[in-house]
Amino acid sequence: MTSKPPVHRRQPNPNNPRVQRTRARILAVARELLPEVGLTGLSTAFLAERAGVTRQTLYRHWPNRAALLSDLALQGPDVGYPEPGTDIRTIATAWLVSLRAGISVPATRTAALAMAAEADHDPDSAQALQHIVEDRLAALNELLEPSGLQITAEQYTLLYGPLLARLFFDRAEATDGFIDTTVTQWLTTIDRTTEP
């Protein structure tokens, strides 16, 4: 007979409505605080106090800071998520517009930049970034499914890379025209033999 792990080591049941409410509250508080206090100011003790939970509760949901930042990036506010369809240009354009809107949310932007900055020396941050890219690639491929096209990780990088370079390195606006040009160029890299 196997014994259950101690209560403080058990993972919360994600299907439990109480657990869902707790997670949502903590993420909402973190989303509000992160742009105000920055990454160094968002300590576990401070977040737990402001969210009205114990530090133990935080660690049960997010074993490290990178896991919390990953959820902040992936579970941001609704910014107009694209619908599945058969028109690859329309889906890719809507995807980049949605990504641009998501990155403009201060907490999402801060979380993404923090993970990228820490990824070289923090394996948890590197793993969190990889998880985000894999998650977003899978989500985009779901949207593309009706078109018959499934893109590779490299093709996905070629789609989102110019947008992130424009926003983070050029520190310039990614206009609708910039997105349209990016999608036009990206479409030339797609193997058309996979289309219906």
Task: Provide structural commentary.
The chain has helices at residues 17-41, 44-51, 55-61, 65-74, 88-103, 106-118, 123-144, 153-169, 176-187. It has 196 residues and is mainly α. The longest helix is centred in the first third of the chain and has 25 residues, at 17-41.
For the largest beta-sheet, the strand count, sense and barrel status come to:
none
Rounded mean pLDDT is: 89
Beta strands, count = 0
**Residues in β-strands, percent:** under 5%
Query: What gyration radius follows from the Cα positions, in whole Å?
Result: 19 Å
Low-confidence stretches: 5-9
Quaternary arrangement of the chains shown? single chain
- N to C succession of SSEs: HHHHHHHHH
Approximate helicity band: 55-70%
* Helix-and-strand structural type: mainly alpha
Number of helices: 9
